[in-house]
Amino acid sequence: SRTAVVIPAAGRGVRLGPGAPKALRTLSGTPMLVHAVRAMERARAVSLVVVVAPSDGAKEVRNLLDEHSLSDVVVVPGGETRQDSVRLGLAVLPDDIGTVLVHDAARPLVPVDTVDAVAAAVRDGAPAVVPALPVSDTVKEVEPRGNGAPEPVTGTPDRSRLRAVQTPQGFAREVLAEAHERVAREGEGATDDAGMVERTGVQVVVVPGHEEAFKVTRPLDLVLAEAVLARRRA
Ligand code: C5P
Predict the structure, then answer these.
(1) Residue 174, by phi and psi: left (phi above 0), alpha (psi -120 to 50) or beta?
(2) What sections of the protein cross the membrane (predicted)?
């Protein structure tokens, strides 16, 4: 069976500051989404890419991809939450897709070796695979206050057991579809796809991620991303 990638790209990118939807902002002159699609298409295993566009911006995304000679990419309009957007992307996959990778448009510089390693681990039999790195900061759990007030600390997890997870996350198709159906039914949230799969009782495994698979979230991340691109071109 074949492998498809779903790229949720419907987020507004509020934390980056005012401007276009995050996926359409440029890095060294090229939209982040175009970098992300190319990163997926470079992977040997990937035979189909589905982009989930902002619900009011599907036509703009279609035109943008066509302009960059990416007419083979399927575009569908997204939803309110990342979860909704991924579910809408899964809904258009052809029957012969057995492995699904889900990749954030906001991680435009993930190296092809990371993509291939995730896809290979799924094809080798793991139902759910997540690339991740050890965390460098000590992480505290707090009682959130959310208004800038001091927040009481409730715990400090053992750092050596923590991993910061990235994308693409890879899944046996039916495992991911079942997790999304369940979440839609029960109305629970999760910040990543593997988190949803964990709740269905399926074992998720972590493989090594890559520094360059970082998520472009804040203005400083744009500076870093452009520096990485400049180094690659040098
Ligand atoms: O908000 P966060 O950084 O977790 O977003 C991760 C990815 O999910 C981004 O690529 C963003 O465009 C996408 N997203 C989406 N639909 C939403 C919200 C986020 O496709 N409603």
Answers:
(1) alpha
(2) none
Pocket test for ligand 1, best of 34, 104, 107, 166 (most atoms within 8 A of CB): 104
pLDDT confidence tier of residue 173, bands split at 50, 70 and 90: very high
Q: Does 132 contact ligand 1 (Cβ within 6 A)?
A: no
What whole-number percentage of the chain has pLDDT above 90? 88
Which residue type sits at 206? V
Instruction: Report the C-alpha gap between 9 and 73 in whole angstroms.
Output: 13
Domain definitions of the chain by residue range: 2-133+165-233
Contact 86, 50 (CB under 8 A): no
Q: Measured between alpha carbons, how far is residue 71 from residues 32, 63, 183, 219 in Å?
A: 17, 9, 32, 30
Of 112 and 147, more confident: 112
Measuring CA to CA, which residue among 81, 112, 107, 115 is closest to residue 213? 107
Closest to 77 (Cα-Cα) out of 59, 55, 93, 60: 55
CA-based R_g, the chain, Å: 18
Q: How far is the C-alpha of 75 from the C-alpha of 89, rounded, in Å?
A: 9
- Cβ–ligand 1 distance for 35 under 6 Å, the answer no
